[in-house]
Structure formats: structure tokens, C-alpha cells
Amino acid sequence: QVQLVESGGGVVQPGKSLILSCAGSGFPFSSRGMHWVRQVPGKGLEWLAVTSYDGSYIDYSDSVRGRFSVSRDNSNNTFHLQMNGLRAEDTAVYYCSRGAGIWSGLPRDAFDVWGQGTMVTVSS
Amino acid sequence: IVITQSPATLSVSPGQTVTLSCRASQFIGSDLAWYQQKPGQAPCLLIYGASTRATGIPARFSGSGSGTDFSLTISSLQSDDFAVYYCQHYTYQSQWAFGQGTKVEIK
């Protein structure tokens, strides 16, 4: 079945780096845009980053631009979030999600499949 | 573009019909989605294109609106429907902005 599985979360000290990975299966991974979204426990959803199906378009939220970067490896059906200079306020559950395939022309896509999330805790 | 949901919490009884509101600060056409999130779970896409149900979503969930004002109606609330609902403008123009969520709780 269609599935996204995140990995790489954990406890990290402030200022350090962490890489999250998202493995897709059950669908043609290279045909869909992919996104990272995070959620502080008990709070709302915050979009972080997007890559188009082929990686030619990448964008970030203002809150993480310059510290976080994304990449995808369509040969291995994986999508990554490199997080640098982590802060306490980056503590959250991080989800990867799949674009629904309605991207046409300008970047637009609902998120039709989500991973189970991976918790990142930034603490000394 | 800012997405605002109201109310923050709705207390309803099973079997009732409830309507959640979502407003965009600028015209966004129909590029609006609704998600349901239950405790401890990832969000689930309910509606996109303001009114198109995602695959497998029951007909008791319906979305409407365009431009700046949108709503999600859940008819005959079932116990499984008590959750937090988020709307989202799903384009780069708002950085895929989510509303702050509406919690539908049992009265």
C-alpha cells in the first residue's frame, strides 16, 4: 500500500544538526511533489519545505530558510530534511507528506499521504 | 495570505451536523484543503479544491466556498469524527499556510 515512513528523529543539542529521512513506497515516488510539515505537541501544523517531483523546484518557509534544506533521491524513493543550527523551538513532530498530484504550472498541491511522524527534541 | 479558522472549539453531540469556517485574507480561488487529525495520528486529507472529497472520504463530509470564505460541514457526526480539523491554502503564495485548527469535541 501507499506509505511514507520517516526516520532520523531523536534528541539533539541546540546548535547541532540532524537529518530526517522519508521513505516512500507503493506509488511512483518520482511523480509527486513532497513536503515536510512539523507540529509542536499540542499545537497546529506548520509547513516547512517542498520539492517538486523532480527536485527542480524547492522552497522553504521563512522560519527555516537558511537553516534547513531538502533533497530527494528518486532512485531510492527517499526524501530528506537536513536541519542545521537547531533551536529549542524546533522541537516538534516532523511529518513528510506527499503532494496529491494536482500541481500544474505554479506550485500548488494538497497533501494526500502523510507519514507517521518522527519526534525531534532539541535540548541540552 | 493568512488563513483563519473559527471557532477554535466546537462542542457537539453525536448525530448533529456541524459547520466549520475558514477564511483567507486574500482571494485564493478554490485552492483550499481540509484535514482531520485525531490524537496521536498524522493528519488525513478530507477535501481539496474546496469541495472535492479525497479518496475514501465519506459523503457526510462536504466542503464549500471559494474566494475567501470556506466551510466544512460534517453531517450526522459519528464518534470517529471528534478530532481537530485544519484548513490549508495549498499553494506557494501562502507557503502552504494552515489555519490554526478547530477542535470538534463531544458535548
Give a brief description.
The complex is a heterodimer of chains A (124) and B (107). Chain A contains no helices and eleven strands.
Task: Describe it.
The complex is a heterodimer of chains A (124) and B (107). Chain A has strands spanning 3-7, 10-12, 18-25, 34-39, 45-51, 58-60, 68-73, 78-83, 92-99, 111-114, 118-122. Chain A is mainly β and 124 residues long. In chain A, strand 5 and strand 6 form a beta hairpin. Chain A is globular and about 40 Å long. Helix content of chain B is 0%, strand content 48%. Chain B has strands at 3-6, 9-12, 18-24, 32-37, 44-48, 52-53, 61-66, 69-74, 84-89, 102-106. In chain B, the strands form 2 sheets. A 6-stranded mixed beta sheet of chain B has the order 2-10-9-4-5-6, with no helix packed on it. In chain B, strands 1-3-8-7 form a 4-stranded antiparallel beta sheet, with no helix packed on it. In chain B, a hairpin with a 2-residue loop joins strand 7 (61-66) and strand 8 (69-74). The chains are: A mainly beta (124), B mainly beta (107). Chains A and B meet through strand 5 and strand 10 of A and strand 4 and strand 5 of B.
* Shape verdict of chain A: globular
Q: Helical element count of chain B?
A: 0
The strand order across the widest sheet of chain B is 2-10-9-4-5-6
- Backbone structural class of chain A: mainly beta
Report strand % of chain B.
over 45%
> How large is the radius of gyration of chain B?
13 Å
Helices and strands, with pairings:
The complex is a heterodimer of chains A (124) and B (107).
Chain A: E1 3-7, E2 10-12, E3 18-25, E4 34-39, E5 45-51, E6 58-60, E7 68-73, E8 78-83, E9 92-99, E10 111-114, E11 118-122
Parallel strand pairs in A: 2-11
Antiparallel strand pairs in A: 1-3, 3-8, 4-5, 4-9, 5-6, 7-8, 9-10, 9-11
Chain B: E1 3-6, E2 9-12, E3 18-24, E4 32-37, E5 44-48, E6 52-53, E7 61-66, E8 69-74, E9 84-89, E10 102-106
Parallel strand pairs in B: 2-10
Antiparallel strand pairs in B: 1-3, 3-8, 4-5, 4-9, 5-6, 7-8, 9-10
